[in-house]
């Protein structure tokens, strides 16, 4: 655990702009700078992971995406294909894994545990699936993904992170096979809790608290945009 983690809220920011900011901070953290948590919401965008089969799980043409106002981006994160949009809370922790005694798998499991703890505070029972990265909650007769996780580790420092469906329109997921998992639906906190859904600011507060508790002793700064 480190002493300090900087927390920055980027607001609504295009995926590639936020990616460039991650790259800038990643370089600083790799040189010993303060670890940083970026929070962001993205305009509608479908991102492809490094898995070669990711594009096979895009079930719409690029023209259909353009008509729907959805950008398509090839990312360098792990995992398969996913959708980001307003109302989804995206968190990018940029941390040195060795400082926390974590392997790559251990880091991914740590992120899953953090989200499960946040959801429990909100009254949602969720769990990890040994066969599929992410966080899942039981709904009717199946399990639905409520949080996707995809990371990249370079020079021992993490990039990318988690995407938690809070509110917003999930119809963008209809253009893909989410994470390449057929028959596994996605769901949001709002769909689970209905009118009891907390505001995004509350979910951010809980997520920040749990990430800081897991990776640092305090949050050094909050830079809200």
In short:
This protein has 225 residues and is α/β, with parallel strands linked by helices.
Could you walk me through the main structural features you see in this protein, from its secondary elements to its overall organization?
With 225 residues, this protein is of the alpha/beta class. It has one domain: Bira Bifunctional Protein, Domain 2 (BirA Bifunctional Protein, domain 2), CATH 3.30.930. It is built from 5 helices and 11 strands; from the N terminus they run βαββαβββαββββααβ. The strands form 2 sheets. Strands 7-8-9-10-6-2-1-11 form an 8-stranded mixed β-sheet, with helices on both faces. Strands 4-3-5 form a 3-stranded mixed β-sheet, with helices on one face. Strand 9 and strand 10 form a beta hairpin. Helix 3 crosses helix 5. The chain is globular and about 45 Å long. The two termini are 28 Å apart.
Tell me the layout of helices and strands.
Layout lengths: L1 E11 L2 H16 L4 E7 L3 E4 L13 H7 L2 E4 L7 E3 L3 E7 L9 H18 L4 E4 L2 E8 L2 E13 L2 E9 L23 H5 L6 H16 E9 L1
Parallel strand pairs: 1-2, 1-11, 3-4
Antiparallel strand pairs: 2-6, 3-5, 6-10, 7-8, 8-9, 9-10
Helix pairs in contact: 3-5
